[in-house]
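hiii so um. not sure if this is the right channel but i have a protein structure encoded as C-alpha cells and i wanna go backwards to a sequence. like what aa goes where. can anyone help
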C-alpha cells in the first residue's frame, strides 16, 4: 500500500501495483509508522525489507531523517495461552469455526483442547510469526526458534509487552520523538476479565496438569530464551535515568501519521 512505499521507494523497490492516479509517497517529508502485523505482511517484511534494514537506515540518514525497526515480545507462557483463548475460544468472529461450545465453560474440555493444539504445533505462535518467511537458519538445531531469534537480532529494538508504556517511550526516544499522550494497552485478557463471567473464563487455563505444563514449556522453549534475553536488556535500559523531555512541536499533520518508518 501507500504507507509501505515509505520503505520501498527509498530503495527503488516494487511492492505491488500502484493505482494509475496515485502519486509517489513523500517519504522525505513524512513521519510514518509501517506495521507488519498479519502473516502475509510479515512475509513481505522478511522478503523485501529485513535484508535491507541497514540500507534503509542509511538512505533515511542521508535525507536528514531517522529509520528504526522494532517489535514487541510478550512473556511466552502467557502469550500462548492468550493466543489459544482468542483464536480458539473467546475471540468472537475470529474463533476457529470448529471450536466445541464446551470449551467456553468446561475447564477440562478446554485444557484437553489446549493440549491437543500444543501437540500439533512446532512452536508457540509468537515464535512461529517471527520465523514466518525468514530464511532458514544455519547450523542445525531448532530451525523455527533460530529463525525467530535471527529476526529479532536484525531489528534495532525489541520492546516488552509487560512494560508496554515504558518500552514505547524508550523506543520513541531512540528516534527523537517523545509520545504526546499516555500510552496504554488492552488485550483480550483484560476484556474478558471485565465481563460478567470473566473470572470463570480467565481461570480455565490457570491450573494446568503437569503433563500439559511440560508440553507448554517444551513448545515455548525458544521463546523463553529470547524473551529472557530482551527482558533483561529492557530492564537494564529502564533502570537508567529518564531522558529530559524535549519540547513537543506543534502537530500539523494527520494524527495517524507517525515517526519515520519502523
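sure thing!! here u go:
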Amino acid at each position: 500500500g501507500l504507507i509501505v512505499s515509505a520503505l520501498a521507494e527509498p530503495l527503488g523497490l516494487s511492492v505491488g501495483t500502484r493505482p494509475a492516479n496515485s502519486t509517489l509517497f513523500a517519504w522525505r517529508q513524512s513521519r510514518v509508522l509501517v506495521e507488519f502485523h498479519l502473516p502475509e505482511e510479515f512475509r513481505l517484511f522478511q522478503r523485501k525489507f529485513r535484508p535491507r534494514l541497514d540500507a534503509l537506515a542509511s538512505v533515511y540518514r542521508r535525507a536528514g531523517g531517522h529509520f528504526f525497526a522494532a517489535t514487541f515480545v510478550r512473556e511466552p507462557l502467557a502469550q500462548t495461552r492468550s493466543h489459544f483463548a482468542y483464536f480458539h475460544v473467546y475471540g468472537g468472529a475470529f474463533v476457529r469455526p470448529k471450536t466445541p461450545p464446551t470449551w467456553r465453560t468446561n475447564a477440562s474440555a478446554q485444557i484437553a483442547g489446549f493440549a491437543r493444539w500444543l501437540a500439533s504445533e512446532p512452536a508457540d505462535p509468537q515464535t512461529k510469526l517471527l520465523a514466518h518467511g525468514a530464511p532458514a537458519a544455519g547450523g542445525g538445531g531448532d530451525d523455527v526458534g533460530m529463525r525467530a531469534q535471527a529476526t529479532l537480532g536484525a531489528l534495532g529494538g525489541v520492546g516488552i509487552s509487560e512494560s508496554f508504556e515504558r518500552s514505547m517511550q524508550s523506543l520513541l526516544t531512540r528516534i527523537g520523538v517523545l509520545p504526546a499522550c499516555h500510552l496504554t494497552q488492552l488485550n483480550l485478557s483484560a476484556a474478558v476479565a471485565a465481563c460478567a463471567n470473566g473470572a470463570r473464563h480467565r481461570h480455565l487455563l490457570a491450573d494446568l496438569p503437569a503433563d500439559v505444563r511440560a508440553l507448554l514449556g517444551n513448545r515455548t522453549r525458544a521463546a523463553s530464551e529470547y524473551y529472557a534475553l530482551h527482558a533483561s536488556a529492557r530492564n537494564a535500559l529502564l533502570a537508567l535515568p529518564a531522558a529530559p523531555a524535549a519540547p513537543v512541536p506543534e502537530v500539523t499533520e494527520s494524527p495517524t501519521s507517525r515517526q519515520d518508518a519502523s
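oh and Residues 161 and 191 are 16 Å apart (CA to CA).
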